[in-house]
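Morning!

This is the sequence you dropped in the shared folder:
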Amino acid sequence: MMRPPPAPSFAETRRILDILRSTRLFAELGDVDLRNIALCAEIRSVPKRTYLFHEGDSPHGFYLIGKGVVNVHRLDEEGRETVIRIFREGESFGEVFLADGGPSPVSARTEASATLLLVRRADLTRMIAGQPGIAMRLLASMSRHLRSLVDKLGSLQHRTVAERLREWLLLRCPETAGCEPVKVRLPSKKYLLAAEIGTAPETLSRNLARLRDHGWILPSGDTITVLDPEAFASADLGS
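The structure's back. Tokens below.
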């Protein structure tokens, strides 16, 4: 019989709890539930451009991002990559593997050095079997998380690419920036930014050029300078 992994140390448990509390999926769970989930989790420091799993694999659990960027994608028959979604700090992915140990329909790769929390399916399943009450609380938390994602998707559909790009840029500007210029670092690949805001790379390029021509931003290499964040936030960007 396979032995369960050793319980995390006190310091590691604190790190695990910090990640659980900062992740939207578990933000509303109580301390007792989080401590129980922490016993089913392990922290992994993962280098840039490392695959967590490939399409067709059966991952051992699902992931929470403490730091870094993860690219979830598929490959077509000719080996071209289609980004499904980019996940960042405070987000989780692979929750479907909690209930389904079947092959993954996607691959996941870090785009930057990452600190990830793997919640092991087998251990969490055993814990739930012994404490069935937590299953309902987990289900309620996941339902709220899914509802928020659906709401976010609906919001994206009613905004232009320029508006989504503005939001992405302003989220990376300090709240105290006011009208002072702010430099925002771009992802290493432009298609990653396009995937994050739900558009094609060509459409992203056109909108970057339009915002530049209107004097709102100044692209340069791997950064974009938001010239006046306060005015940009309330600007009419047109259709």
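Headline: Helices lie at 10-22, 31-38, 121-130, 132-157, 161-170, 190-196, 201-213, 229-234.

More detail when I'm at my desk.
O.
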